[in-house]
Known about the structure:
By secondary structure, the protein is mainly α. It has a domain at 13-44. It is 42% helix and 0% strand. It is built from 2 helices and no strands. It has helices spanning 13-25, 30-44. InterPro entries: Arc_rbn_hlx_hlx, Ribbon_hlx_hlx.
Amino acid sequence: xxxxxxxxxxxxxxxxxxxxxxxxxxxxxxxxxxxxxxxxxxxxxxxxxxxxxxxxxxxxxxxxxx
Length: 66
């Protein structure tokens, strides 16, 4: 897996609170929900790169069956 990029994002506190609530409703972290929304916007605009990896679905990852 390739290394993830880190960015600093400044948001209005009210926007962050609304985003965090929305992410919680979707069982995602705020960071994962931001990436989900950005990917969706890029896809709708026809700008999502063809070689972009898939995101894991919402919720907890399945436990390993060791």
